[in-house]
Write a structure and sequence with these properties.
Blueprint: H1 3-13, E1 18-22, H2 39-51, E2 57-60, H3 63-66, H4 71-85, E3 92-97, H5 101-114, E4 119-122, H6 128-135, E5 141-147, H7 153-157, E6 160-161, E7 164-165, H8 166-178, E8 184-188, H9 193-203, E9 208-210, H10 220-227, E10 235-239, H11 241-244, H12 252-272
Parallel strand pairs: 1-2, 1-10, 3-4, 4-5, 5-8, 8-9, 9-10
Antiparallel strand pairs: 6-7
The protein binds the ligand O=c1ccn([C@@H]2O[C@H](COP(=O)(O)O)[C@@H](O)[C@H]2O)c(=O)[nH]1.
Ligand LLZGTKA7 binds at residues 21, 23, 61, 94, 148-149, 187, 189, 211-212, 214-216, 238-242.
Length: 273
């Protein structure tokens, strides 16, 4: 099953719009993992196993793995573990790739062959030819940065080009011209709920990956109100640090499960309003 259908099944059958972010930072790990050469994998595997039932997707951020010797091998093993143990939950590789076509082909092999991710985040700044090698894989998701969650999102993404802010042009172009295989989605920060509302109007039912709740302070109610589709889905609302570091003790995985369940439930309460 392709990424978009896997995601839709998860929204409807597991009744969750929560994306669990996997951003392992050894400085924040519980003491019993200190010095363990396999700590990135062990920490994330326990988090994934504890939170899978509450997740519509997992989103490992590649930098948290590639920053460490052996980290990319840990990431490959982690994704293989998720596919084997939680086959219904799609994996989004957060790598924000984008380059000329020949290099993009290598990034395609990285995301879809080496790591076997169901979807990958992409930077659309280099234009259509940089996205084409990814778009050709109709069963994999291509999730493009549109309006990011950080304060600097305003620097370029809100510049007015041909009478509209650049982020709106990006949303419109991807929805109308790049989504021929129906495998596109957009990243929109929870910290910009008004822009989220505008993007939802521009892109119809297209899935939106929404980071920025939890540690970055985005409002869950505003995200659901402004970002959901008519059937109350359409969103992958990501939380990473708020789930991963709910406890720094040996009970970290159980605490992560409680945090994931609480956020899943809060999102679902907002969907009913
Ligand atoms: O606009 C963006 C795009 C990506 N991210 C990523 O999402 C998570 C957020 O982590 P939290 O701990 O929940 O704040 C992280 O991997 C970012 O690289 C984003 O925050 N904003």
């Amino acid at each position: 099953m392709g990424f978009i259908n896997k995601l839709r099944s998860r929204w409807h059958e597991a009744e969750t719009l929560l994306c669990v972010g996997l951003d392992p930072d050894p400085a924040k790990f519980p003491a019993h993992l200190a010095g363990d050469p396999d700590r990135l994998f062990r920490f994330c595997r326990e988090i994934a196993d504890a939170t899978a039932q509450f997740a519509c997707a997992f989103k490992p951020q590649i930098a948290y793995f590639s920053a460490h010797a052996g980290g990319e091998e840990a990431l490959a093993r982690l994704i293989a573990h998720i596919h084997a143990a939680h086959p219904d939950v799609p994996v989004i590789l957060d790598a924000k790739r984008g380059d000329i076509g020949s290099t993009a082909e290598q990034y395609v092999a990285e995301a879809f062959v080496r790591f076997n991710a169901d979807a990958v985040t992409l930077n659309p700044y280099m234009g259509r030819d940089s996205a084409a090698p990814f778009l050709a894989h109709a069963k994999r998701g291509c999730i493009f940065l549109c309006h990011t969650s950080n304060p600097g999102a305003r620097d370029f993404q809100e510049l007015v080009v041909d009478g509209e802010p650049l982020y709106q042009h990006v949303a419109r172009t991807i929805a109308s011209a790049w989504n021929g295989s129906g495998n596109c989605a957009l990243v929109v920060g929870a910290t910009f709920p008004e822009e989220l509302r505008v993007i939802r109007e521009l892109v119809g039912e297209m899935p939106l990956l929404v980071p920025g709740v939890g540690a970055q302070g985005g409002d869950v109610g505003a995200v659901v109100r402004n970002g959901r589709t008519a059937d109350g889905t359409g969103l992958m609302i990501n939380s990473s640090r708020g789930i991963l570091y709910a406890s720094r003790g040996e009970d970290f995985a159980q605490a992560a499960a409680r945090a994931a369940r609480a956020l899943r439930d809060e999102i679902n309460r907002c969907r009913k309003r």
